[in-house]
Amino acid sequence: MPIISIRVDEKLKQRMDELSYINWSEVIRRKIEEVIEEEEKKRKKGAKDYKKIAEASLRSYEFFLAYGGKKSEETIREWRERNWQ
Q1: Amino acid 48: pLDDT
Q2: What distance lies between CA 37 and its chain's CA centroid?
Q3: Cα atoms in the 13 Å half-sphere on the side-chain side of 34
Q4: pTM, entire model
């Protein structure tokens, strides 16, 4: 099994020593596993659907071309001006 090391300040080390019956390696190992599992869940929830992203990008480009290749701000401004006249 690989070995990793961590640094803690003196006060924390003293407090750990007072609780010497606790297996600190196991505590740290469990916490590392917990953090990894949480991060993996976040990744799965936030997984990107590249097919949908590509489709949205294509629709956006088609919209861009359909309105004369103008920036969205320009198109919105034109629509507002038409409605206010």
Answers
A1: 77
A2: 14
A3: 6
A4: 0.51
